[in-house]
Design a protein that fits this description.
The chain has about 450 residues and is of the alpha/beta class. The chain is about 35% helix and about 15% strand.
Length: about 450
């Protein structure tokens, strides 16, 4: 995520090299070596970067052995160093790793299990290595099948990093040009905008306007892609159904609706897929990141009709997409989610966590503190806390959000910030959050204790 108000590529919650003097000599030396060989494109989190050497469950450990509560990393969905994933990958790597032009069993078994998680007609899957590759392929398919070019995205969307996907990723900042064949629309804003039916109508009217705008420029319409929880726009969940209404408008205009499930998918929202809360069946679905618990694998899921329309005319092959080792990791992730009932756990743990954050905000307000918290939003273990000026209750306050991020990091609790105005705390822990110490909820207790302390210290 990058600042929209800067002409430079500045990352929210990024390390400031100007603060290097406050770091230990060992940390400065490691950062110097890193910058020398990795270059200026790489970024580090936090004013004082965390030097991690080990992970376990929902925890990371630094070089000095300190335990950090990981409330941010969605990629290791079933936990850092998950034993089942470790065993599956090691066994497969010791047996066979090759590509999908040979006939193997496991990729077919996994494809059957994965597509069974979707409603008809979503019944086929193409595997890639990364979410960016999968989004690139989904957009390419939509353009080929519809004959169009124009793609609609939300104004601060993040979808990936290939050349094609960067065109539909405005959150990459002002130095990332957005071409005429990409139309930007505003996400619903439950703090500053309307709600309910009015919000749905306003959103769909923007979609109609974008389609009309393409027509006026002579750009044929291909479709729309949305992260199902609009994470980079500040996690916009309400009103339920606004994405289904948008998809209907898209289809009426001959386009395809693509659900980007790279962040919300695989149980994070308390359901298998984030789009489910909108009563929606997309035309194409992109999945990735948590799919392999950190082992690179992603995919596009779609209907036989769309896949045939693309595959009968275009030759597509991804050498390592769906390789046996990545499939072994992905299979182990499904086993973990299903056998440990992590979707129901995500819903329950997320409710405890969001309720606790709301209570802390309410307590601060009750004792007369000038609270900066405008709203706490959440679905499962994907929670957003929006910070605003206490003067008017609506003006975004990114500095307040960043102060909480840094305050929590100082207490060894890891989160970050996001959103159009960079004022939204993003809480997104591994799905195994609170699974150790059943009945006591130790991770939630630790998070809320730290959050309460930071809120109290900052007068928020």
């Amino acid at each position: 995520m990058v600042s929209q108000g800067s002409e430079q590529s500045v990352m929210v919650n990024g390390y400031d090299p100007g603060a290097a003097a406050a770091l230990t000599p060992a940390a400065r030396a490691l950062i110097t070596r890193r910058e020398r060989v990795l270059g200026s494109a790489y970024r580090l989190f936090y004013r004082e970067p965390v030097h991690v050497v080990r992970g376990q469950g929902a925890h990371l450990f630094d070089a000095d052995g300190h335990d950090y509560l990981d409330a941010y990393n969605n990629v290791p969905a079933v936990g850092h160093s998950n034993p089942r994933v470790q065993a599956a990958v090691a066994a497969q790597l010791a047996t066979l790793n090759t590509h999908t032009r040979y006939l193997t069993d496991d990729v077919i078994d996994y494809a059957e299990r994965l597509t069974a998680k979707f409603a008809p007609p979503l019944s086929q899957v193409i595997f890639t290595c990364t979410g960016s590759e999968a989004v690139d392929l989904a957009v390419r398919m939509a353009r080929r099948v519809t004959g169009g070019e124009g793609i609609i995205v939300t104004r601060n969307a993040y979808h990936g990093t290939t050349s094609t996907v960067a065109e539909i990723t405005p959150s990459l900042g002002p130095n990332n040009p957005i071409p005429a064949r990409t139309a930007l629309i505003d996400a619903p804003d439950s703090v500053r905008g309307s709600g309910g039916a009015a919000a749905i109508a306003a959103f769909t009217e923007q979609v109609r306007g974008a389609i009309a705008g393409f027509a006026a420029q002579g750009i044929p319409f291909a479709g729309m892609i949305v992260d199902s929880v609009l994470s980079s726009d500040g996690m916009r969940l309400e009103p339920a159904g606004f994405l289904a209404a948008a998809a209907q408008v898209v289809r009426e205009a001959g386009g395809l609706y693509i659900a980007d499930e790279v962040q919300p998918g695989f149980g994070r929202t308390g359901a298998w897929w984030g789009f489910e809360r909108h009563g929606l069946v997309p035309d194409l679905v992109v999945v990735g990141k948590p799919m392999g618990n950190g082992v690179p694998i992603a995919a596009v899921v779609g209907s036989e009709h769309v896949f045939d329309a693309f595959g009968s005319e275009v030759r597509y092959f991804n050498t390592f997409g769906g390789n046996p080792v990545s499939i072994a990791a992905a299979t182990a992730v499904l086993d973990e989610i299903e056998q440990r009932d992590l979707i129901a756990h995500s819903a329950a743990a997320g409710q405890r966590l969001s309720d606790g954050i709301r209570q802390i905000a309410a307590d601060a307000k009750r004792v007369g503190a000038a609270t900066h918290i405008a709203q706490v939003r959440g679905a499962g273990l994907f929670i957003a806390v929006e910070y605003v000026s206490p003067t008017d209750g609506v003006t975004p306050d990114p500095q307040a959000a960043l102060a909480v991020v840094q305050g929590l990091r100082d207490r060894r609790i890891l989160v970050s910030a996001s959103g159009t105005y960079e004022n939204v705390l993003k809480v997104r822990p591994p799905l195994v959050f609170d699974t150790e110490g059943t009945g006591t909820h130790p991770d939630t207790a630790r998070f809320l204790e730290g959050f309460a302390a930071v809120t109290r210290d900052a007068g928020q």
